[in-house]
Amino acid sequence: FPQALKNALPTLGNEFITLLKETSVANYITVHDLTYAYKSIGGANYEYMLPYLFLALSYLLLVLCASYLVKLYEKRLRASDLY
Fold it and tell me: With the C-alpha atoms ordered 62, 65, 71, 76, is the resulting torsion angle positive or negative?
């Protein structure tokens, strides 16, 4: 299992990040997520630019954190090959 995980981790990490990015599209299929919350905030005061800017930044932060964690785990698995 550890050897299989080492080979599959880059693909699984990419799929996780892609799914994270595509959750904004899920809002259009009536799944309430970050996009719905920020749209509600924008609708409350009729200003959409600032909430959507924060939405983009929050997705960017989530993707960067997920990418960092996957990279960190890959590095840890690669370091175990040396022993």
Answer: negative
